[in-house]
Structure formats: C-alpha cells, structure tokens
Amino acid sequence: MNGDAVGSDAVSGVPVGGVPVGGVPVTGDAVTGAPVGGGALPQTAAWSIARPGTPQDLAQVSLGDHQGVTVATVSGEVDMSSVDRVAGTLTGLSNLAMGLVVDLGAVEYLDSSGISVLHDLAQRLRRRSQMLIIVCPPGSPPRRMLELTALDTQTVVLDELGPAIEAMRSACEEPAGG
Amino acid sequence: MSPPAHDADGEPEPAPARPGVASAAEPETQLGILLVDDHSENLAALNAVLEPLGERLVTADSGEQALRALLHEEIAVILLDVRMAGMDGLETARIIRGRPRTRHIPIIFLTAQASDIEEIALAYATGAVDYVIKPFEPEILRAKVSVFVELSRERAERVRQSRARAEAEAVARTVRTLQILSDAALAHLEMDGLAAELLERTGTLFQADAACLLMRDETFHGLTRQAHRGVALPVPADGHVMLGAGILGRLAAERRPGLLRGGEIWPPPPDGPALLPGSETVTSMLVIPLVASGELLGQLLLGSCVPGHFDTGDLELLTLAGDRMAIAIDHIQRFAHGRQLVETLQRSLLPDRLPHHPRLELAARYLPSGLAPQIGGDWYDALELDSNRTALMIGDVVGHGVRAATTMSELRNALRAFTVEGHGPGTALHQLDRVVLATMGPGMIATVLVLIIDAAEGTVTLARAGHPPPALRSADGSVRYLETGGTLPLGIDDRVSAGEARYAMAPGDTLLLFTDGLVERRGESITLGFDRLRDAFGGAPEDVEAICDHVLAHTLAEQVSDDDIALLTVRLLATVGGPLELTLPARPESVPLARHRLRAWLAAEVPQLDTIARGDLEVAWSEACTNVVRHAYGPRDASFEAVARVDGTAVSLQVRDTGGWRPPRGRHGGRGLALMRLLCDQVLIDRRVDGTTVTLRLTLPGPSANGSGDDDGSAAPGSAEE
Fold it and tell me: Does the beta-carbon distance from A50 to B352 stay under 8 Å?
C-alpha cells in the first residue's frame, strides 16, 4: 500500500478517548460478589456471540471484601441504560457494615444517572450512620463529573483504593478508641 | 331369638369343606376377624361358622389376650363375648375404643342377657356396633360378620386407592424429576456422569438393591455394561450381553420390558442344582429397554433381594421413566464431545469485539447450526491494520466439531499474521493455501474471503478462495456482488494464486460478508439464494446492526438450518466535514449508541479538541438523549434525531424529539440539565407543540478566542434558556 501513514495521525489518536465498548472484567483481589455480566458473552442468545456495544456489557459492578472493608468495584460506562444494575448492587450493603468504598477507578464514563445513584447512596448511608468513600483517580472522566456536580464536597472522594480501605478501617476502630 | 337354633355350647355345625368355598379370598386380601370368648367350645363354634367366609380367623380367650392380639394383627371385625371371666366384654370394648388404632374396628357383641343389650345400646348408641344373642343362628351371624367384613374391605380399598393416587402423584413427580435431571444433566454431564446419576435416582426411587445400565455396543451385536450399583445382577462378568442371548438379550432384542423373578433371573446351570438364594441375591427384577428415535440405545436393570418386591405397576412406571432417560442419553451421546470445550473454542474463534475505526461501522452475527449446538466451521475476523486500513476475513471450514474448530483457529491466526505483515488479500490467501497444503493434510477444505478497506482511499481490495463474494450496497440502495477471479477453495492447489480485485467504496456504501449458509437451501438453486440476499440487503435499513438483523430475518428458511451462518457488515461513513446524523428509537440502549457514535465522530472531525472537552460533549449529548428517552415519550416505537456538526467555530449538537418534552422534573432531570450547562458554552431548548430541540454548543479552541458571540446560527427561535 502507499505511504498513507502521514495524514492519519490525528485519526489514530482516537482510542485515547474512545474506550472499548465491551468494558473491562472486574478484577478485584478479593471479589466475593458475583460479577454482574463480567464480560461474559451472552450464551443464550442464538446469534449474538459477538455483538459489541450491547447494554449488558456497558457497566459491571461487584461487591468484594478487602481486608474486612466492603468495596464495590464499578467499571465500564455508567449511563441511563446501565445504571440500574449498578444501583441494585450498591444498595445491597449489609446493615452491619461500617460503610462502603465505591471504587470508580475503572469507570470510563459517568453522567448524571450515575451521579444521582451516588448521591442517593451517600444520603442513605448517612441516615444509617454508615460511611461512604468514593475512589476516583484525579483527571478521570468520572472524577470530573464528581467535581462538576460538587458531589466531591458532600462525600469523601479519594484518589486511590488503598488509602480508602485504610481510612475505612481506621474509622471502624475509632469509636472503640474514643 | 325366634329362629330355632342350637346352643353355642352344643354341637358346632360342620364347616363346609375348604375347597368348596368359592369366595375364599386370596391370602393378601384376607381380612382378620378376632373372636373373643373365654370358652374354647364357643371359639370352636364361631370358627366353624365363620370359616366359610374365607377370612383370617384370630381367636382370643380373654379380654387381655384380645387386646394383645389387636396390637399386632390387622383386624376388620371383632366378635366379643360380653360375659367373660376377668376383663369382661364391655370393659374390653371400652379399651379397644380408647385406642386410636383400634377405635374404628366394628364390634359384634355376643350375649345371652337382655340387660347386656340395654347396656350395649346405652354405651354404643353410635358407631359400628352390633350384637348377637346367644344361641345364635349361624347364617345370621355369618351374614352380619360378612357385612362388616365387606365394609372393612371397601374401606381398605378406598385407602388403597387413595394411596395409589398418592403413589401415582409421586410417580408423576418422579418422572418430572427424571426429566429435570436429564435436562439439567445435558448441560454439564458426560455419559458416565449421566449413567451414574440415573442409576442413583432410579435405584432410590424404586428401592432397588441393584441397578445396571447396559448400553448398545456397535463393536459386537449386543450391549455393554456402562454403569452398575449395588449387589450382583445376572450380567455376564465381562459386561457383555449378546442380543437374543439369555433372558436379557432376548428382552433387548425384542425391545421388551420384563418383570423377572427367582429362577428366571438365575436360571439353574444345566449341569448342577439351582442356586440357593442368599440375602444378597436379587430375586425380583425389572428390565426395560431404552429406545430413542426408534433406536435401541440400551437396557436398564433394577434388582431387589426382596422376593416379589417389584410389581407390574413398577414395570410400567420404569418403562415410562425409561423413555425420558433414553432421550437424555440420546442427547448426551450426540453431543459426546463436550459442550464446554466446543463453546470455549467457538468463542475463541470469533472476535469478542470488532475494531473501532472512526470511519467504519461494523456489525457481525454468528448463528450456530440449528440442528445441534455443536461448533460449526464458520468464522469471521476483523482487525485494524493501520489508521486507514481495516482487514475483514470470513471463512468456512468443511465439517463440524472440534476438528473443524481447531483448523479454523489455525487458519484464522495464520491469516492474521499474513495480513498484519502487510500482504494484500491475494498474497495472504496464497500463503495461507500453502500452509494448508503443507500442514493440514489432504481432505481439509476451507473457503475464505479476505478484504481490506482503505477508508482514506475509499477502496476495498479483496481476494477469495472458493468463498461467496461479498455484496456491496451503494448509498442509493443498489446491491451488487463484488466478483473476483481465482476461486478454488483452500487445500486443493496452491499453484493457482487467488485473484485480487479492487473496488471503489464510497462513503455511505455498505459491504456484506457472509458464509454459504445464508444463501444455500437444500433442494434449491444457489442463484435463488443470492437473489434473495440481494433483495433483503437492498431493503435493509442504514444501521449495520439493523442490516444484520434484517438480512437474517429475510433470508433464513422456515425450517432450522443444518449449516451455521456467519455474517459481517461494514459501512464506510461520510468523509471529513460531514455531520453525524442519527435517528434512534427512544429507548435506553440508544443513549450509549448515540454516545459511541459521537465519540467516533468527534475523534475524526474535531481532533483539535482535547479528551476532556470530548468527554464533556459526550456527557452533554448523552444527557440530552437521556432526557428525551426518559421524559419525552410514552409509546415504545417513538424515535428521536440526534445531529452533530461543526458549525463555524463551534461544535453543535442537537437532539430533537417529536413529542411533548416536559420540563425536567425531580433531582435527576434537573441534574442532567445543569450538567449540560456546565459542560457547554451554550444550551438552547426550543419547545414547540410538535417537539423539542435541545442545542448544545461548544466553541472550538482556535485563533479567534471570541467565537461564541454570535449565537443565533443554529439556534431555532423559541424560548431560549441560558
């Protein structure tokens, strides 16, 4: 073929923002909750073995236990079409848990649908005296949404999962110590 | 007292000879009659009178003995002498009536005293109680007793029937259970597992001491033991039963069920005495054939060490269950190669996602063969070669199953390698042919189509080896097949190079790649199939996903296809500068679809925007679409339009519906609108009776920093917000 690589650099820059539609399978280190649709191909649909972009692939969420702290790992794209599954799992927190860490580290897209769910979650946990920590890397698309909607001022947002788990653990020990 | 009778103490009436009693009941159905009298002569007389009834007579010479007898005997009627030494008849009756187990047993009092009769009448005003005054008339006594016996027999029959009904229900449940078992087993059990499961279940359900499954063995004219549980059954030590040989072989050959006992099961050796049954010897046995689709698959044996354990009802039930089991076994044998492996392979052979190219829309379908969920020989593949060129491959390996899948996998990987190395379709196919001939041996035949689309050039270059040509649909809807030369399948002659051809592919053109299952129907010329596909493709909607569905819906025959089908559709989008125009159903799944299309469009059309700005536009556009889907519509089939264009120095996104857009209500809608305003330089909402248009504008970075001043460009007149 001819040397056509030149004028196409702009085009090849696409994938930076253009994340794969399929979504990343959940890879928590202690995931106990069954990953919802974790990248599994639809097995019943007779003729859609490969059909990228279907809503069931869009967002995944799972609850896991990290050193005694419940962590909800969300990934993929959270929008109107995929938010219900995420919301359903996030509300499954036990009454007995100290709180919940919601890890948005693998979320590629989040809009007001997801913000509303997080907002409701923060309110409910507050009523139940449970703590909510959102983990979201700086500069990521979901972090921008948290900042634009000022949700980061109403709830604790940390950059990384490790410190979030630490914070939750120390918060658990706090009441006993004083 | 009127009829003349002899005293009970007198000479008993001679009992009729036993063989002469026509109504003598079978031993199993005999009912117990308890005779209680402290005079043995009276007992003898009663015995003699009642013996013709053919029932089981139990005697007791005291109240205490009667009560003891009632503890371990099933009694239908009691004849009770009132005046007895020790515990008298009335006292005994009170105790009998006080015990739940014996409360219902009818009692006939025997007495010579009128005062006793009054007492009896007082104490037992209700219930199955009668009395006979001594000296009694034998015929009358016999008649009375026989009435009670018949009543009791009827009651027992009713109990038996209700128990039978309960059993029938249990049986139905059993069959359902077996069915469930076999269905569930299909998903994960191999033959061995299924056999063990079935023996376990049937053995338990029929309370068998032994169970054995014999399967048809084609290596000889007979059956071979597949699985066995419990004590020994009359299957030869080597596990082989010849058809027609022995009782099992005969039953199998005639496909007959059998209920066997004792000597039938263990025929005495010709040169020795019969085997003596031990406690571990099967003395009752059920044999049923397993037949599915008219074929004898095997035989199921159940054995019990309890003589007469099985009856014809059991045989009928097992035969019924056997039909279900045969179906399950049949299924498993057909898919003996392991569904899991096949599924994994199949999945690994088809790309789980198609490459994203800003100028290409791709969609694919794979339909397994309708006959069996086995792996087919079809596959497709797509890979991005560089920023402009995308390679698409589709192929069909002759045959099914794991071997075809493995071949397919090798072909796919080799073809990927050749294509990525930079070879054109013709050369890649030629090299692939050499690999096939060199490594895969004779008899391996495959057809393959390779094409490379150059989005910048607007061309498609293709070569095929025995594969149907792709169809190209122009923007005007006309469809043609892209022919090439050199169409021998792979694996025949690698000296013939596949001919390469190049066609123009204009923006808006759509290519359809497929395997022959889509155009071939048994007993029909393939030309008809190609014509049918051409019509279906020409009449299909714009969207590539919709094209796949439409084409499949309009080309597949009514009956299940015995071939698998792969289908790959690719559309070349308009060149730089064109707007993105979408018409989508007002449903949640349209929101991510619109976003993904915008994502590709932004990357291609406004690369100067940074990723944050593009992300912002994605969110704003998604919010506008979400509002439409969430608020604007009732009917399911409503649609909305979404248009993205570069408008002077700004990106303009419009989402237009044709329904009554209600102002956003609640936190959610408000939050969406607030986000739109935060993310864009301008948000215009134009509400009209025939619909609402939301226009979002974001000024592009560039030399003129004040580009957003004149805003009336695309904003329709109306109530503008912000």
Answer: yes
Which residues on chain A are in Cβ contact (under 8 Å) with B359? Answer: 11
Neighbour tally for A139: CB within 10 Å: 10
Handedness of CA B474, B568, B367, A40 (dihedral sign): negative
Q: Which residues does chain A have within 8 Å of residue B388's beta carbon, measured at their own beta carbons?
A: 4, 8, 11
Strand-by-strand arrangement of the A99-110 sheet: A59-66, A69-78, A99-110, A131-135, A156-158
Element (H, E) at B580: strand B580-585
Partner-chain contact B626 A79, CB within 8 Å = yes
From the list B351, B602, B612, which residue is nearest A144 (CB)? B612
How are strands ordered across the β-sheet holding B75-81?
Answer: B56-60, B32-36, B75-81, B107-111, B129-133
Could you give phi then psi for residue A79, rounded to 5 degrees? Answer: -140, -170
Would an 8 Å CB–CB cutoff place B366 in contact with chain A? yes
Is pTM beyond 0.80 here? no
Residue B165 corresponds to which amino acid? R
Residue from the list B351, B602, B630 with its beta carbon closest to the beta carbon of A50: B351
> β-pairing, B360-367 with B565-572?
antiparallel
Digit-coded pLDDT (tens) for B385-418: 988 899 999 998 876 666 777 777 788 888 988 8
The reply to whether residue B592 touches residue A116, judged by beta carbons under 8 angstroms, is: no
Where helices occur in B582-709 by DSSP H, the ranges are 590-605, 611-627, 666-679
Residues in chain B: 722
CB B62 within 8 A of CB B26: no
| A113 contacts chain B (CB < 8 A) | yes
- Residue B694 predicted with pLDDT over 50: yes
Q: Are strands B378-384 and B389-397 parallel, antiparallel or unpaired?
A: antiparallel
And the tokens for B19?
């063989």
d(CA B413, CA B426): 17
- Residues in B closer than 8 angstroms to A22, CB to CB, are 352-353
- ipTM over cut 0.85: no
Question: Which chain A residues have a beta carbon less than 8 Å from that of B387?
Answer: 5, 8-9, 11-12
